[in-house]
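Structure ticket #2291
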Amino acid sequence: MKFIQITICAAVLIFLVLCSGCTTSQEKVPVVPSPTVAEPTTVATIIPSATASPIPNNNLNTLNPTAIPTTFVGISSLDINHHFMDLAFGGGNVYLERLPASTVQNDYPTTISVSNGNSADIKVIEKFITEFNDLSASAKLSENIKEGVTGEIQIKFISPEGLKAVDMAGKSSGWLNKEFKNNGVTKVKVKDQTIYINSDLQGTERQHYLLLGLLFELGFKGSSLKYPDSIFFEEGTDTTSLSKLDSKAVQIMYGLGMFNGMTVDDVKKKVFIST
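Resolution: structure written out below.
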């Protein structure tokens, strides 16, 4: 009888152990899927990256305006040569007119004198002389600006009434002389080696016509209809410095390959413009 009771107790204990094992294994089952539930959340964070793809495209589009400067940076040698030809022969002259080159026989720079100018005028001329001498490989301008009328190039500031009295019929050919007007008002008259400037001019307009008169005397008889930043632009009145194209034109005019009296065809062959 005791044996039967012991056997029953043992069977009950084994049954309880087996049941507890089953319950513990069942309790662990719900825990396992929890990491798999988190996976969709990580997938969901990837989805916005697809919608974010246009952002780099927009950034690339904003870079396009940086290519715009190439449209005005790309000035060709042909542009420079045509600009020079417009300035050198655009006044109707048939021969190149420029200062003679400084040589062993002619080692003295061309002198400039100023009459009735002010200190601001002198500074403008001094700055121009420095720039011209840097650009020119041949002729040079004296840095010693004289007072009065003793210079080889004379600059005279006179009243509008006095300017009207200046007779433009000079000893040289007519196309070597020029009267600069704007809105019917005479600003400058260039006659032979003398530049007459309206003394009523002020500020940038005064500087503009002072430089324009000097450049005409140095051989730049023409003008520009194409480049508004050029000091030679026909409609400009306030440009007070040479543009990049203007500087290149000065370099060509006063390069070692140019000389006074060259014909249009001679100059074209030098600057490689086909006739």
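Closing remark: The beta strands are 112-115, 146-147, 153-158, 178-182, 185-191, 194-198.
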